[in-house]
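Dear support,

I submitted the protein below through the web form. The confirmation email said the job was done, but the results page showed an empty box. After a refresh the structure appeared. I'm attaching both so you can tell me whether what I see now is the final result or a partial one.
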Amino acid sequence: MKRKILFLFSGSRERILHEARSGEGTDTALRGMNHIPGAEYLIAPRGLIWSLFLIPRLLRFDIVIAQDELFLGYVVSQCARMFRFKTKWLYITMTSSTLIRRHATHPVRLFLFKQFWASYSRIICLSSEQLEDLVQLGIAREHLVFVPFGIDAQFFQPASEPHEENLIVSVGRDAGRDYKTLFRAAEHTKHSFVVVASKRNIPLDISTPSNISVLYDQPLTEVRDLYAHAWLVVVPSKDASVSDGSDCSGQTVILDALAAGKAVIATRRSWIADYFVPGQDLVVIEPNDSEALARAINELWGDEGKQSRLAESGQAKVVAHYTTKAFAKALLLMIDSVT
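What the results page shows now:
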């Protein structure tokens, strides 16, 4: 039986679709939609009242997949049960653990979050920590599914032998990125760095070292070229106890860089253990430790054999398991389980 599947996004996807089709960008932000035959998408209007006008249209679908619109998902789920519609709301959580920590001292807010999340047919967790945090909040485990995140690995895989230079690249605009620690580490190395970020990411209370160049808001084609020329990639993130950014801060960039065949040094975050073996697929250092980061950079720089082994192992794992196609396949299996 053919099912009507809808992806609900909070921002336009036309440019993303165009760039993915033309090879100028990735399909990562489509969350597997383009790999599910017949799937449709809608853009949620801005503002709560305007979103509510979308409910009759949403109830025409068997499956709605969203990563935002908490209240709208709750209303649609309740209406489906009350009026016996077939609509199932599948929620891809990006920030549930961060929200739980941020509002830990606000029981009313936590109660509301719990009501919203408990109403959904399934919550798709991108890490085991997210899943366990939701269980601790009181969400039934059977409503939670761990699905590894997927990126557009093909976009980042080098078409030819890369021309590597004596360059370290660090990319990311997530609020959880820790460039302050990177800047301090760079002062203890002789290597050249290129950071690609937004202006809001760059710390104002520390000067930019002379061996770091900062580029703002570069297109993905430029990021891909930087990866091709990079000797290694560093992804510094804030400690998970800091309620900034997404739950799995650094996830997309780490997967992208590994897909590009680069050795990666990253700050320890719980999600990494769900996807990789530290020391085998990438190097992991503790948060806020600029000396450890500088030491890891210098050690890996001088060990070409280890660098190659990490790059090959990490790339193989991403290509085999953590792509948008694999994510779409997992979504279809979940849809089968709820319909």
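Response: this is the final, complete result; the empty box was a page-load delay. Residues 247 and 265 are 19 Å apart (CA to CA).
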